[in-house]
Amino acid sequence: MGHPVIVLGAGEPDFDTPDTIKDAAIRALQAGDTKYTALDGTPQLKAAIVRKMARDHNLTFTADEVTVGAGAKQILYNAMMATLEPGDEVIIPTPCWTTYSAIVEICGGVPVHVPCTDDQGFRLTPAQLHAAISPRTRWLMLNSPSNPTGAAYDADDIAALAKVLAAHPDVWIMSDDIYEHIVHDGFRFVTPLQVAPWLRDRCLIVNGVSKAYAMTGWRIGYGVGPRPLIRAMAVVQSQSTSNPCSIAQAAAVEALDGPQDMLAIRRDSFTQRRDLVVDRLNAIPGLSCRRPEGAFYAYASCAGIIGMTAPDGQVMQDDRAFCSWLLETTHVAMVPGAAFGVSPYFRISYATSMAELQDAMVRIAAACATLSRD
């Protein structure tokens, strides 16, 4: 018989979608908004995204510079499919969300992984970016705050990277801003065009309502960028999914235009959870965890555990073995760092209740205390 498992692997807030957003969806249903919409987003949602960019980032766009898809993942896919030729390279700082590399490969491109270590805050440096650029480089993909590390780039970090891009006018930047509202300790989020507006003709900003508004299942993401790119992405979408769900788009309008006070409340809750997880992990011999600036992930090193032996004789050969052993013995599920391109680490999502997180940390600490080094 199975055991109840504490799942700390999901990239999904445990909060419910706010009632105001649900109510907007109900109104849309009642009004009969159940037909096809414009291919890549309703005029109402595109207008709400334009307002959001002005309100949050002081950036001015028009509706024809906006595209809406079935989640941010589709926006990423559309952009790669619309722009990559076979052999084109995409620079991806690692650790990274696994989808980035997979999409690039599906679209015929070559992911160029640049390892970013713990001691550099898991952030790409200008020197690394310069070294990674080749004549085949098409895109730099930047995710801030990051999945899986929670690392975030401040204005100075982005300005330094933009300075490198200034010398390479054929290299575009894709900024995945999906965790922008989940930042800690007063960190100030910026999107690249706020720092380097001259990148406007070669920058795609990717975002959505999934994380901030707890709308993962509604599947609405959007991109904001140059008109030619947006048009090309629409062509790709026209031959795949066509328009996103009409009801979900109506709900997303309310998410972006409606009350925003819950963002700070939920952000503070995530910060409390982060501190619990990071402090408890750092108290366990053999584990260490950097305190992330944002998102709801902790990316912890288990280097001090590698090579140790469990009471049943299992050897912690790598992060995969460690996570598998913890799942078997403590019924706590985490994702090994190998999945994100950098080992020996593991990712914990703290987008779950404090009670479950406390229980999980107790179980992990107790299990690690049984390990020995022969």
Written overview of the protein:
- By secondary structure, the protein is α/β, with parallel strands linked by helices.
- 38% of the residues lie in helices and 15% in strands.
- It has helices at residues 19-30, 43-57, 72-83, 98-106, 126-132, 155-165, 192-195, 227-238, 246-257, 261-282, 319-330, 354-368; strands spanning 6-7, 66-69, 89-94, 110-115, 137-143, 172-176, 203-208, 221-224, 288-289, 297-301, 332-333, 335-336, 345-349.
- Strands 2-8-7-6-5-3-4 form a 7-stranded mixed beta sheet, with helices on both faces. Strands 9-10-13-12 form a 4-stranded antiparallel beta sheet.
- The chain is globular.
- The two termini are 33 Å apart.
- The relative contact order is 0.17.
Helical content class:
25-40%
Total beta strand runs? 13
Low-confidence stretches: none
Our estimate of the beta-strand percent is 5-15%
Structural class of the secondary elements? alpha/beta
By DSSP (H or I, 4+ residues per run), the number of helices equals: 12
* H/E series: EHHEHEHEHEHEHEEHHHEEHEEEH
**Can you list the strand order of the major beta sheet?**
2-8-7-6-5-3-4
Radius of gyration equals: 21 Å
What gap, in angstroms, lies between the N and C termini? 33 Å
Helices, strands, pairings?
Layout: E1 6-7, H1 19-30, H2 43-57, E2 66-69, H3 72-83, E3 89-94, H4 98-106, E4 110-115, H5 126-132, E5 137-143, H6 155-165, E6 172-176, H7 192-195, E7 203-208, E8 221-224, H8 227-238, H9 246-257, H10 261-282, E9 288-289, E10 297-301, H11 319-330, E11 332-333, E12 335-336, E13 345-349, H12 354-368
Parallel strand pairs: 1-11, 3-4, 3-5, 5-6, 6-7
Antiparallel strand pairs: 2-8, 7-8, 9-10, 10-13, 12-13
Helix pairs in contact: 1-9, 2-9, 3-4, 3-8, 5-6, 10-12
